[in-house]
Design brief:
This protein is mainly alpha-helical. It has seven helices and five strands. The strands form two sheets. A three-stranded antiparallel sheet has the order 3-4-5. A two-stranded antiparallel ribbon has the order 1-2. β4 and β5 form a beta hairpin. α6 crosses α7. It starts with 15 loop residues before the first helix and ends with a strand. 12% of the residues are buried.
Length: 162
């Protein structure tokens, strides 16, 4: 197994040397050990966004704020970097699902999907289809029983339609 130990969920941790670099970088930028939402947006160059794009960025920030105290602390930052850099596909999919399931009810409905596409369009610029057209197109394909629920987090990694 070398010098890397497996941790919960099969994720391989970032090597201690890399963790230390991320820790030092974070602490130099945020000496209090806490990053605010405003600082997060500034770091990523996401100032002056429209309302939908702002909501999406806020949602991303909130999924990294694991203890829901309104700040990303150094441990939450390291956990986020570890997920992005070393996370298995299933872990990343679970994070994305949590991000897009805005009301936390265990499924992504048409309104949530529309919000995703509107936010992505706001962040990336104009697309060929409007967010509404694209949402309707996707939902015609995945909502096979017309219950208004597209995806639900089932067992394991699979998405299922209801």
């Amino acid at each position: 197994m070398g010098n890397r130990e497996s941790i919960a969920g099969g994720q391989t941790p970032i090597p201690p040397q890399e963790t230390y670099v991320w820790y030092r970088t974070f602490m130099m930028e945020y000496p209090s050990g806490l990053q605010t939402l405003h600082e997060f947006k500034t770091l990523l160059g996401l100032q002056g966004l429209n309302q939908k794009a702002n909501q999406h960025v806020d949602q991303v920030y909130n999924t990294f704020d694991l203890n829901k105290d309104g700040f990303i602390d150094v441990l939450e930052f390291i956990a986020a970097v570890n997920l992005i850099v070393q996370g298995k596909m299933e872990q990343k999919l679970k994070w994305y699902f949590k991000l897009y399931d805005a009301d936390g009810n265990g499924s992504i409905d048409k309104k949530e999907l529309l919000n995703i596409f509107m936010a992505v369009q706001a962040l990336n610029g104009q697309q060929a289809l409007s967010p509404e057209e694209f949402t309707n197109l996707v939902f015609r394909k995945i909502d096979i029983n017309n219950d208004g629920k597209g995806w639900s987090w089932g067992w394991g990694i699979s998405f299922r339609t209801k």
